[in-house]
Amino acid sequence: MKGRDAKPHVGIFGRRNNGKSSMINCLAGQEVAIVSEESGTTTDPVKKSMEITHIGPVVIIDTAGTDDSGEVGKKRVDKTREVIRHIDLGILVLAGNWFDHEEESIISQFEKWEVPYLVIHNKSDLDPLNDRFKKHVLEATGKQVLEFSALHPHNREALIGQIQSAIPESAYLSKSLVGDIISQGDLVLLITPIDDEAPEGRLILPQVQVIRDILDNDAVALVAKEREIDTLLKRLSPQPALVITDSQVFKKADASVPDEIPLTSFSTVLARYKGDFENYLKGTPHLSRLNNGDKILILESCTHQVSCDDIGRIKIPRWLSGFSGMQLDYEVVSGLGKVPGEITDYSMVIQCGGCMITRKQLINRLKPAVEAGIPVTNYGMAIAYMHGIYERAVAPFVKLEKDSTSYL
Question: CATH code for 9-171?
Fold first, then answer.
């Protein structure tokens, strides 16, 4: 499953034939998932976008049965479990008053990845929820079971209400990218190079997001290419309250933008907005402590055609090898693909800005490394550090203690 949609993700889990696909159709109010009496109809995770009142657009994910069998079935179950890392809310679908190790295993994954979840007893028109079973599930999970029938959904609004209550607000309420460091009427200069990696006829998503955020905060966005900056800054009055640059031209921007004007990068802004910023601050200085033979994991959150100037696959490895003076090995993983080997095989993890995925997906993408004590950073902060302008890049957001890797 590729993380190409930044809407909140809700995953539906349960045994084969428990009515997961029927429940999705019920929620969507239309036939969006294939329903059959035959077990194992859903073979791979299937995503469907829909609207939920008071939340907005969400992505519902239908998954294969957790009790699938055989060699192929095991692969389907593995894919189902992989989905849990990338969702904002889980819905465990029971049926037939049945709950044992299969359900306990899914719940343990919810808890491992800190995913809030609901427990629904479906097909209650065929086998009503009994009090003894309800008490058993409450004792096992701490959750009240909602009795439901996808075919006769008289309490559909109750289910939607539980989803509204359970999904974290952080999954759908966007905080401001730069609203707390600019004021109404401020001029914010954006440096956006147009090179081989720039999409034809449009800006990249982080640039568009920042422009919108500036406008939402009643400030003024001015966009220019890097070669225009020197002339532009001489003509501007008043000077910009903030300059945000593409990471690839950070060194040029640092030389051109006067020290008294705050300067950061789009990637650093995104790192603070949806990344693991605290651990990035701790991890970035470890770029100076790499040794020969260290393996570096580079995580891209989207898939794209690779060019000769690719930032993650070409430029960062070239810059890092030159900066460290070491012979390093690099592994690049795109989308939300599985990381080869064990996370402890790597000495450093460098994550992209994550503009194409949710915060939950990004945080859980990095969680194994953080828990294993592997330093993590992101593209923009790593580039700034390697070019000697890291302190300036993070200064708009944190107070950096001199000669220290701790922050106030």
Answer: 3.40.50.300
- The tokens for 52 are 């939920």
Domain ranges of the chain: 9-171, 187-269, 276-394
Query: Alpha-carbon distance 401 to 382, whole Å?
Result: 18
Q: What is the pLDDT of residues 356-393, one digit of tens each?
A: 788 888 898 999 999 999 999 999 899 999 988 999 99
Order of all β-strands in the sheet with 220-224: 220-224, 187-191, 242-245, 263-265
Distance, CA of 337 to CA of 297 (rounded, Å) = 12
Assigned fold of 276-394: Rossmann fold (3.40.50)
Yes or no: say if 7 and 57 are a contact pair by the CB < 8 Å rule: yes
Residue closest to 313 by CA, chosen among 343, 344, 276, 350: 350
Whether the full predicted model's pTM is greater than 0.90, yes or no, is no
Alpha-carbon distance values, 38 to 35, 43, 152 (Å): 9, 12, 20
Distance, in Å, from the CA atom of 33 to the CA atom of 2, rounded to the nearest integer, reads 19
pLDDT, tens digit, for every residue of 345-358?
Answer: 999 999 988 877 88
